Amino acid sequence: MALLDRIPRHLFSQRGWGLLAAGAVSLLAAQIMGRRDLLSLSVLLIVLPLVALAGIRLVRPRFQVYREFNPTPVETSAPTTVRLAVARGGAGGGRAIMEEKLPPKFGQSPAFRFPARSATGGTSRYEYHLRSSRRGQYPIGPVTAEFTDPFGLSLHRQAIDDGDILTVTPAAVELPVTGLAGARGNDGITATRIRANPSDDDVMTREYRPGDPMRRVHWAATARHGELMVRQEESVTTPEATVILDQRFVAFPAGSGSGHGGTAARDSDDVVSSTFEWAVVAAISVCTHLAERNYALRLLDPRGEPAFLRSPSAPEPETEEYTGASGLQSIAESLAAIHLSGAHHGVRERHGAREGSAAREHGSQDSGPDVFDDYLMDKLSAHRMRGPIIALLGRISTAEAKALAPAAGYGANAFAIMVCDRPADAEEALEALRRGGWRAVAVQASVPVPVAWSHFDEGGAAPATAAADVRRGAGVGR
């Protein structure tokens, strides 16, 4: 059996190799004994597997493969079901052993026989389950088929489809309710009033109608008109929130993050740190939290460009505004394969037509003209005071914090979470942000996202268990 295991299986089956061996023995016996009948038998035994091998390579069976993921995309640590339907196209027979090629992280590739015992209408259906603990885009497939000739003498292996991509998005965690909305209120609704002069009272009031609550009576207008007047319903607008997602390699250095296994290499050869993974989970959690409260979302990077401009998984990389469930789904997909950029590649690339900017070498953490600069401020100014600004940052320098600090003036409220190895080293940066009007907190990657988020609660204090890992700017709590 050990000898049989060493025989290559990509040409002949064990039956085929057996016929070839028998043919060789018969040929040797024919030479020794001078028997012509043994010679004829040896030729038959040798030629038959060779003819089968040539035939299976000249007349290759054609297959059609249909692959479906449910659900797709799938969140990290959640199972997805892969359904395969394989049908043979054209003439042909014989059996095949098929294997679905999977990335090594998913373990052993599933194998199955074709046709399946339950095949109907010439189509065999198969099902298996996958689960990934890491976000990303993973190639699933192709299906490789090892099929034989009708006599089972020769083998041929080939890929019968191109495979598909499974998108694994980061899973959001539930965040506690905080006082993010400022004047808008926690329910995501804001009142818009136009009061150019005192006479606007007449514009904002109407006559009393049966059923109107007395708390809405406008007494000044009532005295002026001589009849009961009430305030009109306030007009409602969709609130907006801006999320700035830091994704620079210098802000999330390799090996950063305690207790999370250091760095990990993705299939795209991009290296990410556990602190960046924390920021990605925080981003989807914050966006989900706000979307559930009817906020329209705008996501930017530190340069003021669309946050997902460089994400391979982004459905619309140049989009920066998202609304509703479809917008939240697009954000999740965009975060699936987002990676660090900048100094990791040796240069900081500037994408988009921005006059006066060019790629340059970057070897420090100091703020450059393309980070937290006027372009970002112009973007924030265009949506001035329409809602909160949330910055999810890595390790930033004091100079970068000073450059970002004025951005707080463009939001109804400004919140910053800085994730780094040593929060104590971020005190100066936090102080710079605080002086600009930000409510800021620095945490380690070991701190749960909800704990970091709870520092923005109007009531204020974080749980004592996390106090040693958290450094807060003086303006965080009230």
Descriptive overview:
The protein has 478 residues and is of the alpha+beta class. Helix content is 25%, strand content 24%. It is built from eleven helices and 25 strands. It has helices spanning 2-6, 14-33, 36-58, 200-203, 219-225, 274-291, 324-336, 374-381, 398-404, 427-435, 449-453, and strands at 62-70, 74-75, 79-89, 96-100, 111-114, 123-131, 136-140, 143-148, 155-159, 164-169, 190-192, 205-207, 229-231, 235-237, 240-245, 263-265, 271-273, 296-300, 321-322, 347-348, 360-361, 389-393, 414-419, 439-443, 470-472. The strands form eight sheets. The protein has a seven-stranded mixed β-sheet with strand order 19-18-15-22-23-24-25, sandwiched between helices. Strands 5-4-8-9 form a four-stranded antiparallel β-sheet, with helices on one face. A three-stranded antiparallel β-sheet has the order 1-3-6, with no helix packed on it. Helix 9 links the parallel strand 22 (389-393) and strand 23 (414-419). Helix 6 packs antiparallel against helix 7 (324-336). Residues 181-203, 256-270, 344-369 and 459-478 have low confidence and may be disordered.
